[in-house]
# Entry
Amino acid sequence: METRMTQARVRRSDLEWRWPHRFAPDLAPLRCARPVVLPCCRKPDAWLNLQGMKDFELYQQILGLVEPWRVESVTLKPQEREIEVRVGFADTLWGCPQCQQRMQIHDYEERRWRHLDSCQFKTIIVSRVPSVRCPEHGSQTVAVPWAEKYTRFSRLFERLAIDVMLECSITGACSILGMSWDEADGIKQRAVKRGLARKVPAVMARLCVDEKGMGRGQDYLTIVAQVTEQQTTVEYVGEERNQASLDAFWEALTAEQLAGVEAVAMDMWEPYVRSTLAHLPGAASKIVHDPFHLVKYMNEAVNEVRKSEHRRLQAQGDDTLKSTRQLWLYGMENVPAKHAQRFAEVKELNLQTSRAWAIKEVFRSFWFCPGAKPAERYFGKWYAWAIRSRLAPIKKVARMCKAHLSNILTFFVHHLTNGPIEGLNNKIQGLIKKAFGYRNKERFKSDIFFHLGGLDLYPAQ
Ligand SMILES: [Zn+2]
# Structure
């Protein structure tokens, strides 16, 4: 069933029509918010708008249409649960979208756009879009005010879809908005493209570089983020995690941008260090091997010591270290209350793992030294202890730290704190989890920019 209301068909007499009491006197006090077809009416196809506003006027205002565009009709399709808003235009001269020169309409093409729902009804804008034949630019389709070029959604619908996709997975957005995966992905890809195109080169004083696996296999991306007091935004995503992956980032910066970089936090990963030294003026004093990455190495070393000791003890029937993996990874102050008793006991035993744990904990305090000089002295003592520990994994990390000490001590100059780097890492991990791992690199890249790029994603108003 399709019921149609046009400007011509609504007459004053329709609006003044009253409920026929003789058919259903009990229902007389009810007032409807939307037009209803009344049964047994003496004008069976008449519409009654009890609020007094004609639908096409309402939509004209909602869509913000101005001359020459106007709503011609509003059609309710209850079966399809759809409202179709037909937009027409007055006779006028149209501007070529390239040169704005005004000319006569040459042709038109009927197109449809999904708009924000009206209550629970999908709302579709239908219009013939004029095209002009510009002597300079050839045949050109004119721009419509409610949507961007080449899209099947109105600007407002795209805004809503972007907001929903920022909050939930693409599959979730599809089910909330009643759209296909390809449609949602199209909106997302356009949003990223739009956001990246709007970016203007700016000085980025503090950066952090990191590698990120895609959650499947050994495919990596190189990520560069800018850290400011307010937020951490991803500025660059490169393929792989080799020197060339990072070279491309530095090479795209202007001389002014390069000069403006004050500090770069990164792991002790040689290809990144080499790339930065080769491109960034004064890099030797700007590279910071931050606590986030170093403490990760220490935790891995403690875990290795625990694993081999656990194997050895188990062979003798001793289960002391069973299910203690996580306990050793907590910082001393973060051990949950329910494990405190058990941990206090096992920590006091004369175990290799307890020694490795103590070395790790003392290393954590290194970051609280008041400056580079005291930190260097602190490191010297810690290093001597670690190297005498007879624990191979701990010695290995200690040697690695010593080799990079000058760029560890830069931490005390730049104070690139852990929070933003760890936060970014967790957010990317969250994206991987939400997507159940990425098979497609391009999709992983665009999701990183969509969620973490700090981009202006929305269509222009
Ligand atoms: Zn033109």
Summary: The pocket of zinc ion is lined by residues 96, 98-99, 101, 134, 136-137 (CB under 6 Å). The first helix runs from residue 12 to 15. Residues 306 and 353 are 5 Å apart (CA to CA).
